[in-house]
Amino acid sequence: MILDDIAAPIVLAPMAGGPSTPELTAAVAEAGGFGILAGGYLSAGALSQRIAQTRKLTSARFGVNLFAPGTPTPVEQIVPYLDELVASGAEVGEPRFDDDDWSAKLDLLAADPVAVVSFTFGCPSPAEIERLHGVGSEVWVTVTSTIEAQVAVTARADVLIAQGVEAGGHRATFLSEPGDDLTDPIGLIALMQLLRGTVFPVPLVASGGIATGAGLAAALAAGATAAQLGSVFMRCPEAGTSAVVRDALTVARPTALTRAFTGRWARGIRNRFLDEHTATAPAAYPEIHYATSPLRKAARESGDSEAVNLWAGQAYRLAKERPAAEVVQRLVKGCRASLEAAAKRI
Question: Cell inner membrane: is it a keyword of this entry (predicted)?
């Protein structure tokens, strides 16, 4: 089991769309954690190149994350929102559906295996998991509920990534409509207790709102074997985080869940676009992702933080501009100190 071999109980979150880079993945792995390279939004060819580049930077094992495909959304459910965006003066792209090169990426990872293949937005079929097991890869599935966890365990996933509602970026929910889980969103510690209380016989990786050694210690105390962190690494020099997002991470503003940018619930720093369009954005991923792509690209290029998705977890303000290795070292040191302090109080 990979988690038994890493020196630091830290997993790099696969932050697709910019922050994830071979350099960041390698840096976390070299520092004793486990790096996961984002495969979302990439073609199989581009992902292959990033895997090769990561291997040039580190001899440590690392993983790749894939987005499980969903189903198309009827166009009539999308048009009113597109009309709203056009009326606001936004440049709108084609709201198309695709499966994120799913089959080609599975073929790639079967032919050129990595240590771990993790999944977001769904659980692969038992046959797909068996195929990856057959080439020596572990399969990790991101879950947000005990129902999803049971599906993943039944399909023979090796590890569950328990994602609490505090997490930045997209919610990984896959057994309900994208909005349903928000009627009673589950926080990380509650989710960890529920999963452990159900006695799932697989290791858990805790994800959501962890940015300090104390937070890491809390996740381990709740039953996690390791914790997956994203926002705390977004200001690292190795990250591909855009300038406009880097700047936004230095300002104390609240976060919120929204479908406005992609058609799927995701947590980001509140800005004008999020506030104006969250109430009307439909559940239509990836159609809305493609529709808003031109306006988000223009906002990044112009430095307009009010019109771009600023994905970040609830503890993002604790992220500092430090090398990834130093972030890992500080987290481990703080975790040890917190666990020792807690032991003295018991």
Answer: no
The secondary element (H helix, E strand) that includes residue 66 is strand 62-67
Q: Tell me the domains of the chain and their CATH numbers.
A: 2-72+99-247+320-345 (3.20.20.70)
Q: What is the pLDDT of residues 233-245, one digit of tens each?
A: 999 999 999 999 9
Amino acid at 320: K
Q: How far apart are CA 157 and CA 252, in angstroms?
A: 38
C-alpha distances out from residue 43 to 40, 47, 91, Å: 8, 6, 25
Is the whole-model pTM more than 0.85? yes
Q: Which residues contact 12 (CB under 8 A, 6 or more apart)?
A: 24, 25, 28, 29, 33, 34, 35, 36, 228, 229, 230, 233
Inter-CA distances, 154 with 149, 157, 195, 206, 208, Å: 9, 8, 14, 20, 24
pLDDT at 200: 67
Among residues 167, 260, 259, 249, the alpha carbon closest in space to that of 208 is found at 167
What are the distances in angstroms from CA 302 to CA 185, 243, 282? 35, 10, 27
Q: Give the whole-angstrom CA distance, residue 100 versus residue 114.
A: 19
How far apart are the C-alpha atoms of 141 and 158, rounded to whole Å? 8
d(CA 166, CA 209): 5
pLDDT of 90 strictly over 90: no
Cα dihedral 68, 69, 71, 73, rounded to 10, equals: 100
